Amino acid sequence: MKASTAADRRGPKIAPSILSADFADIRAQMAIVADAGVDYFHIDVMDGRFVPNITWGPKIIKDLRKLSPLTFDTHLMIVEPERYVDAFVDAGADVVTVHWEATVHAHRLIGQIKSAGARAGLAVNPATPLSELDEILPYIDLLLIMTVNPGFGGQSYIPTSTAKIAAARRLIDSRSLNVELEVDGGVHAENFAEVAGAGADTIVMGAGIYGTPDPAATIKRIRALCAT
Ligand code: DX5
Ligand code: ZN
């Protein structure tokens, strides 16, 4: 049987977060989800300043780039992101998402990401209201709604996030903007349909995929939810 392609699938794109993968076996961990038909790899960069956890920098992304042609969706949870976006694009990031709360010059920073050759994403923490984004929204390629406080995988989805996702969907559509709506944090097979129904284009899942006994079966199960 021919493998399904992104074009024949229904439902949001799936972006496994490799934060929850076993890095001692990262080649196999990436292959398992790629073979199951995911769309992106979500790569969380943490600096121990913007968030209370540290992960990896451009060197790791450059090395991982050799393992997969899929979109590298790079989520920078770092202070002073303007100092590093070019290095992440050079390392192979296709999407570079920076936090609204981490910069006072979002417009300039979004331009910097695009000039470097990547798609520009903007992430917002749970406490940041969408109303703050009125001016910047037309300039970004992707809006990332955080549905946990950033810093760690495996946290619980904040229930009020569903209304925020739906509001973001309405905002994007009412202004006819070409902005991909991504959701990140605490999504698993049990609440995937709720998040998809609120209007997410892309859903990040860390523990919800890599924390399950059979990640490939979990992805199939999620796809089946969207097949009807
Ligand atoms: C949290 C990260 C998320 C995280 C998601 O700070 O930005 O991408 O890996 O993990 P889960 O899906 O386990 O909440
Ligand atoms: Zn993330």
Write up what this structure looks like.
The protein has helices spanning 26-35, 58-65, 85-91, 106-116, 161-174, 192-198, 207-210, 215-226, and strands spanning 13-16, 40-46, 71-77, 95-99, 119-124, 142-146, 180-184, 202-205. The protein contains 8 helices and 8 strands, in the order E-H-E-H-E-H-E-H-E-E-H-E-H-E-H-H. With 228 residues, the chain is an alpha/beta fold. Helices cover 32% and strands 19% of the residues. The model has no long low-confidence stretch (mean pLDDT 96). The chain has an 8-stranded parallel beta sheet with strand order 1-8-7-6-5-4-3-2. The radius of gyration is 16 Å and the shape is globular. The longest helix has 14 residues, at 161-174. Bound molecules: D-xylitol-5-phosphate (DX5) and zinc ion. Zinc ion is lined by residues 17, 42, 44, 75, 184, 204. The site of zinc ion has 6 residues, from strand 2.
Entry summary:
By secondary structure, the protein is of the alpha/beta class.
